[in-house]
Write a structure and sequence with these properties.
The chain is built from 5 helices and 6 strands; from the N terminus they run αααβαββαβββ. It is α+β, with helices and mostly antiparallel strands. A 6-stranded antiparallel sheet has the order 1-6-5-4-2-3, with helices on both faces.
Length: 125
């Protein structure tokens, strides 16, 4: 999956109810981060230890991992086996995103470890 498609699919899934102008201004524009979707977009999600616990309790064997999300740019797109929130807390990357291949959930460990996040969002159909 290429960078643009992954960003669009992730934003379409988790930001489907967020005003597109807000996404353009506070999420994908220069100087912003994809996880601002949860702060500026006020997307319903779990935060902090609740997010960590929900993520650790997921039953999955493979998910998509990507990093950064700065100004609508991501790096390191790969598939990952199940990992723990503690593992991601100690990861050297700036911002780390893990998402289900069907975009039914996502977990974001931000570089603002003590102030913002992590975030866990599940799409309920």
């Amino acid at each position: 999956m290429d960078e643009k498609t992954l960003i669009n699919d992730w934003l379409s899934a988790f930001g489907k109810d967020v005003d597109k102008k807000l996404i353009e201004k506070h999420v994908i524009s220069s100087g912003n981060l994809l996880w601002h979707l949860f702060t500026w977009g006020k997307v319903s999600c779990l935060e902090g230890d609740e997010a960590r616990n929900a993520f650790d309790n997921l039953n999955y064997s493979e998910a998509i991992k990507f990093c950064d999300g700065y100004s609508g740019h991501i790096e390191g797109i790969s598939l990952t086996e199940k990992v723990s929130a503690a593992y991601l807390d100690n990861s050297p990357e700036s911002d780390v995103y893990i998402t289900a291949k069907d975009f039914s959930w996502t977990y974001v460990r931000t570089h603002e470890k003590d102030f913002c996040g992590p975030y866990f969002c599940r799409i309920i159909n």
